Request: fold
Amino acid sequence: MQRHRTILRTGRGLAAVVVGAIALAAIPSAAQAHGGLTDPATRTYACYEDGLAGGAAAGEAGNMKPRNPACVNAFANEGNYSFYNWYGNLLGTIAGRHETIADGKLCGPDAKFASYNTPSTSWPTTSVRPGQQMTFKYAAVARHPGYFTTWITKDGWNPSEPIGWDDLEPAPFDRVLNPPLREGGVAGPEYYWNVTLPSNKSGKHVLFNIWERTDSPESFYNCVDVDFSGSTSTPTPTPTPTPTPTPDVTPTPDDNGTPNTSPSPTPTATPTNTATTPTPTDGQCEIGVDVSNAWPGGFQGTVTAFNATMQPVNGWTVTWTFANGETVQQAWNATATQSGSTVTAKNVAWNATIAHHNAVSFGFIGSGTPAPVKSATLNGASCIVR
Reply:
């Protein structure tokens, strides 16, 4: 069964469109994504390491020269963006609706990481054993509360096809909320937690991991290639000391009062690169325009504006263009006006700031029959429709 973000959102009947990736002066320019698995290594981190190793071997320390065929393909298709931003495989406005990601795009739901969906027997692979107990290590480029959930592919899945939802076991084998955090990981601070791998697996499989923040609609996606046969094609990072975390019993948003065992979020530096090639700029925003209810001649919409930078947006204006003659009749949590097919919505006093890697939402009542939005802006900068 196919699941498409731009058609109907499963279980909620929402027509959706997500737009993003702008980098103009009206929005803060320093964008940073927030993390990924380093052990076992997600595809993006494994290719980052492969690219650095190839560059060093070619006498170009810090530059990307991937040698692994799957990583070479990613480099050819998307350039070095996904290498230097290996920790940025995310969707900013997904808000837990992961089932809306189309089959075949789980490993790279963001188009900037599309090549990581490509089936290949060459992806760097971590050797594991059935029932093995291991410590997962997840780089915390920036720190946030949330759930880390991991699934595994079913027996008999077809590795020659991109991974879809039906290729995964129906239930995750591991889920943890707010794991402890320590310094000194291979890419700086890292979350870590103990995991017991499934005991009934053999041969090659893929682990699919989602980091779902509880303080933002943002989520991060990781695909990890593993082999239960006991051989390995990638070294295991050197273990780091395990300090005793200091409990923080203040509940985080949406966590049902579960104590948070990680330190309070503080800004952290990004992983240090010695690359002579500048790190590419990350996407700056995502905007979701959703239809939450519809009736003959009218509908109710919700707009979510996500700030993908490390600085707050202070004062925002969102515009979008209707494609089917729709009109806004009223709005709440924003001041909306319309000229022709273009709607302009501005913040109100209490929601003028969009914190870094966070979002604001507002609603409206529209007349007409809604169609997918194809263009939008944030603070005057054009956005790309996903």
